[in-house]
Amino acid sequence: MILCLAVTVGFRNAKHISNAAGLAVITVMLVTTCLMSLVIVLCWHRNVFLAICFIFFFGSIEALYFSASLIKFLDGAWVPVALSFIFLVIMYVWHYGTLKKYEFDVQNKVSINWLLTLGPDLGIVRVRGIGLVHTELISGIPALFSHFVTTLPAFHEVLIFLCIKSVPVPHVRPEERFLVGRIGPKEYRIYRCIARYGYQDIHKDDVEFEKDLVFSIAEFIRSERGEQGIENSSEDGERMTVVGTASTNLEGTRMCEANDHEPCEMDDTFELREIRTPKMTKKRVRFLVPESPRIDTGAREELQELMKAREAGMAFISGHCYVRAKSGSSLMRRVVINLGYEFLRRNSRGPTYAWSVPHASTLEVGMIYHV
Fold first, then answer.
1. CA-CA-CA-CA torsion for 245, 247, 249, 252, nearest 10 degrees?
2. Which of 55, 64, 257, 363 is a good FRET partner for 218, with 20 to 30 A between their CA atoms?
3. Strands 239-243, 284-288: pairing kind
4. Is the Cβ–Cβ distance between 164 and 195 less than 8 Å?
5. How many angstroms separate the CA atoms of 55 and 52, rounded?
6. Structural domain spans, the chain
7. Which residues lie below 8 Å from residue 120, measured CB to CB, with a gap of 6+?
8. pTM for this entry
9. Alpha helices, DSSP H only, in 276-334?
10. Where does residue 264 rank: exposed (0-12), middle (13-18), buried (19+ CB within 10 A)?
11. Which pLDDT tens digit goes with each residue over 328-351?
12. C-alpha span between 31 and 34 (Å, rounded)
């Protein structure tokens, strides 16, 4: 609205405004034609000759209109070019700052060996419940977690590093939603989960997402020996298993949540005995596993610990980063990072996650990124 009013008040001439609108429209049409030729070759897998004919026929007509609009460049057509340049600078500043922030995460991620050294001897204690650490990394331990443990030497008895990735496809099938792997030895109870969403997928609410997330960990524990699922390897050699949502896995592990006095509407022959909880009314988690093949004692104990941790509650640990240009940076870089990117970050909408994080269970860890 402000831009429209500024252009109208500034020009006070319908001819100049029409020149500006004409250049903007014909430029969009010309760019669309060029991109459509790429779609013909890369997406539709048609002959290159067909794409050349398409761009030659439509592009030549639009190029004539484009050249005619450029003649009126000084008579108002310069406005969309100037606005495009301004938005280009804004987008470049955001992309540059985001890229440097991600590079900082990659370069400062903690090795698995550092995590293996943590234990009671170093003053690290494990508290009840599930700790869900959100990270952009698909491998390694984020520097955010090491900063958290160094400041507060404690983390949950079950720890999940969650990475939510948007993939360049419309939809990800529910049976291929999660990639689950293990970090460190089994007794550490630390997992990595990568949730993949297409750009047209509808994200579930927080309750359904938590249920699917816990189910994916339980199914991974049951089928860790490779009876089911497709295995992939991450950059650090972690083995990742493809696990679907609870509604898509009919033959594997199933999950039921009910109150103490509510029956679980599932076949009792498949039930893994639940851990007794206090008499207070609260949700009780039950995992039901297929009777054949039988799971070993270690997997059964791990599932029981996961049940107890889920009943104890889930805490969401996220980062609140402050990006600053490191000492010795040029004036332009300090302006771009300290002023431009920081202003955009503080005044932009936060990332859309697959769940609505409850504020009562959220812990934000502040950290300064020197890029």
1. 100
2. 363
3. unpaired
4. yes
5. 5
6. 2-76, 106-317
7. none
8. 0.74
9. 297-312, 331-334
10. middle
11. 889 999 999 999 999 998 888 765
12. 5
